[in-house]
Structures are given as structure tokens and as C-alpha cells.
Amino acid sequence: MATLAELARHQTSLGRVQIAHLQRLVAEWGMLADFCFADLLLLAPEADGEGWLVLGQIRPTTGQTMYRADWVGEVLPAAERPLVGEAWATGQIVVGEMLQTHGAERVRVTAIPVRHDGALVGVLTREWSPTVGRQPGELERTYLEIFERFARMISDGEFPMADERSSTSAMPRVGDGVMLLDASQRVEYASPNAVSALHRVGVQGNAVGMRLGELGVDDHTVRLAFESGAPATEELEQLPEVVVLVRCLPLLKDQKVSGGVVLVRDISELRRRDRMLLSKDATIREIHHRVKNNLQTISSLLRLQARRLDSGEAKAAVEESVRRIRTIALVHETLSRDVGDDIDFKEILLPLAAMVEEGLQSPDRPVRLKVEGDAGRLPASVATPLAVVLTELLQNAVEHAFVDGRPGTISVAMANDGSVLEVTVSDDGVGLPEGFRIEDATGLGLSIVRTLVTSELLGTIEMRDAEPGTQVTLRLLIPEVYG
After folding, report:
1. Are 469 and 426 in contact (CB under 8 A)?
2. Which residues constitute the domain of residue 125?
3. What's the first-to-final CA gap in the chain, in angstroms?
4. Whole-number Å distance between alpha carbons of 355 and 349
5. pTM of the model
6. Does residue 250 register a pLDDT over 80?
7. Cys staple from 83: which of 111, 146, 216, 229, with CB 3.0 to 4.6 Å?
8. Separate counts of helices (H) and strands (E) for the chain
């Protein structure tokens, strides 16, 4: 489905700034639909016709919808929408009745011209059935009064407002709680849910006729909105573990603040869950940090043990174990810095290559390592065995590809298309022995590689002559969530 901006650009003569104003209106109109208990449609005249293009549609959460069908993108004939044409022609709010489009039911309509910088840019219609609705009471009368004041602001070009001073991206809704303030910031009306929210922050008395500050509630949000003439949103933590989100929208008349609407929402449970998630993430990172430290301690103990060994073969075996442990420790070190269970594998591969280059080279076998491509973010269950596999392949290349002592290069290339990760380790050394098959290899290093790739990573491994040298290709299926 095309967006409001796309529809407006291709089928109307509206400019970029005017379209942005309509987008701000649509961002606010869920609140407006709830205040008026009715469907809202946003229409603009077609550029090359006499019809009205439906740019947006929203249904109320506080009342019954008139329309089950989605009309966005449709062009309504001007003859079917005379009240819209009258509002556009006069620039005034028009109230009347019409026959329901594609039906015979009578529909009550309020057509509100949308003005921006003195020019009309669209028409907002409130549409509802006179035979279906809520029983009128204080809440219903107050909400409709609030909508009518917003409608006048829309018609005068004073709403929506471009500047909002907000400390959060979340917004309370009409159903969460509403307070209507007069020009002196005193409460004229508080909905039942707003009263409950005030009770949560310790206000037990009647709020009507009082300023929020006089009730002991932080009124910084209200003062900011009234002074700036723009909406403001803040979180208030009045009591321990009690957090209330407060949004104040000033009501303007002749460009002066004549009152305000305060939406309040108790978000204590949401913030408690946020704190739990943060605590969980911190705990997991601390666990990875401690695992890394323990692995490094084991590496140090093994090095001490190796110094006491007389057998060269035993010393080599211990050093190989130390290297593998350091590789796994490197993964846990990266996980201790990241939030979540997946890792940018480049943060492991680069220090891993540096560690191998530093630990495996000798003056009589100068070998250079080169890393290309990017594996992207991988789950820890893939990153850990893959790091061990790469370590084994790099060491295998250093030990067997350059036996004649000449300098050489080992390259690691990685490519992730979202579903398959391909890793290629190649060297320009002496190549594979005659008749070599990795399936028949009995060395510990290649046995570890074969087992990890086929069993834990559920991938394939191919090892072949590259002329010159050897090329090893791994292909691993990446879970979709990490692709």
C-alpha cells in the first residue's frame, strides 16, 4: 500500500512542506478519533480531477467504526462529498449529513479544513452514525469539547504543532487517562483512569480546581507546554517503583494558550520489565566476562605445566590446548561487551588472526595473514565453534603449507548472503599431498575441524588444491533470525 507521502506526491499538487504537515496530523489523529468517538478520513483534492483522494483513515478505539473497508488511496467523487467541498471552498468547519458511500445509511459528518501557513492543504472529516453511539455523560461531553477545540486549531492552522519537547518516544493514549486544564493550568476534568493514575502517585484528593503542583505532582511538563505553546512529554517517578508518563498538549485560541489536555499513563510495569531486561543483560555479560577470566587462568596453568615437561611432543600438545582455550576465551570476551546473544564476527576474526599471526610464526617461516569480507552478526552457538575451526585451519596452513621455509600468505574470505555463510581459507603454499582427502585425515586439528563443521555447525567442508597452494571452503546455513 502506498504511503500518505507517495499518494500526495503522485496524485495531488501538495508540496513537500504541506505533505509534512499532513503527516504530523496523521501522527496525532489516533488521539483525535478517540476524543470524538468516530472515524476520521483525511482527504485532498486530486491534481487532475474533481474528486477527493483519501490520504488516510483511522477508526476510534472508544467507539464503533462506521467503515469496515479501507478507503486509503480511493478517489471519492465530489458529488458524494458536498460537505467536504463546502469546507474547502469556505475554509470553515461544516457540519451536516450525507448518505453512506456504498450504502444507504445516513452519516453525520463534520468537515474540518486543514490549514498550513494560511493555505488549505486538505480536509479532515469526522464521520459517525446518529443511530449508534455512546450514552452521553460527563466524559463523553468533555471529550467532544476537547475534539472541537482541536478541530478549531486544525482549521486555524495551529495544530498539529511542529515542535514537541519530549524525553521519550512512547505516547500515552486517551484511554489511559485524560485531564482537561483551563488557561490557569487548573484541572477542569479528570477521567476515571486519570484519577487512578493520580492515586498511583499518591494523590487521593479531588483534583478538579487544583493545579498539579498544588496536588504534589511534578508539573514541569505542563508548565513547559504552556510556556512554549508546544506539546511536551516526560516520565515522572513520584514514588519508588511508580512511573507515570505525562503528555501535555496546549489548546490554542488566536495563537494564545487557552487551556491544555494532559494524557497520563501508568508505565510502572513497563519500566520494571525494562530494568529486569537491563539487569539480565548485565548479568549475562558478567557471566561471559568471568568465563573468559577462568579460561585465561586455565591457559596460564597449562603454560606453567608445559614448562615442567621434558617431552617435546607433550609440550606441543599442551600449547595446542592453550591456543584452543584462548580462542574460546576471545569469543566470551566479545560477548561480555555486546548486548544480546549474537556477535559481530569481525570483532572476533581480526583479533583471532592477530593472535594466530603472533603465536604461530617463526623467523624461518614468515607468513602473512589477510582477512577479507564480513560474516555479519552470528549467534554465539555459531561464532564459538567457527572461531575454533578457523584457528585450526590457520595453524594447519602455517605448519604444512610452507615447509620449504619460503614466505607466504594465508587469506580468509567471508561472505554472508543472509542464509548461507561461506568461509574460504586459502594459502599459496606447497599444496595438498597426493591423494589427500579430508574425510580420511587422522590429525587432531583436522579431526576437530571436520567434527565441528559437520556436527555443530551443520555445514560442509571442501579442501582442494588451488594452484598454487590449498583452498578450504566452508558453507554454513545461518538461522533466519540472524540472517
Report:
1. yes
2. 4-156
3. 26
4. 10
5. 0.62
6. yes
7. 111
8. 11, 19
